[in-house]
Amino acid sequence: MIKPGKNIAMKVPTFKWAETVRFYRDKVGLPQTHSSDESVAFAFGEMTLWIDCAHTQSQTDIWLELFTPTPNETLKHLGSLIGANSNILKTAMANGLRTQRA
C-alpha cells in the first residue's frame, strides 16, 4: 500500500529556475515557507511544493513523496506495472521509498 507524503519536488533546470520560482510566488500567489540558494518551498494546501535548481537537467521533473510499510514488495509490484527497465523505477530504487510505520 502506497500513501502520499507531504512533499512535492520540482527539479527545474538552472535556466528556468528563477522564472519558475517567480511564477509560483508572484503569479500563483503561493506563500513561501523556506528559501536557500537553490531551493524554495511554498505552502501548497497541506503539502509543501519544493522548487529545486537542477544543474544537470535539461527538463523539469516532478517528484512525489511516497510512503509504504513494505518498500521491497512495493518496488517489485511497481516494476511489474511499469517495467523493470523504467527510468521511474530506477529513480525510485536509487532514492528508496520511505517506510512509514502504522
Short description:
With 102 residues, this protein is an alpha+beta fold.
Mean pLDDT: 83
Alpha plus pi helix count:
3
| Strand content bin | 35-45%
Q: What is the spatial order of strands in the main beta sheet?
A: 2-3-4-1-5
Find the CATH topology of the largest domain: 2,3-Dihydroxybiphenyl 1,2-Dioxygenase, domain 1
Give the tally of structural domains.
2
Helix content: 25-40%
The CATH C-level name of the largest domain is Alpha Beta
Strand runs, count: 5
Main sheet record: 5 strands, mixed
Q: Which labels suit this protein?
A:
about 100 residues; alpha+beta; 2,3-Dihydroxybiphenyl 1,2-Dioxygenase, domain 1; 2 domains; disordered C terminus
Describe this structure in words.
With 102 residues, the protein is of the alpha+beta class. It folds into 2 domains: 1-66, 2,3-Dihydroxybiphenyl 1,2-Dioxygenase, domain 1, CATH 3.10.180.10; 68-102, no CATH class. The chain has 3 helices and 5 strands. It has helices spanning 14-27, 71-82, 87-95; strands at residues 3-13, 32-36, 39-44, 47-54, 61-67. The chain is globular, with a radius of gyration of 15 Å.
Secondary-structure topology with pairs:
Blueprint: E1 3-13, H1 14-27, E2 32-36, E3 39-44, E4 47-54, E5 61-67, H2 71-82, H3 87-95
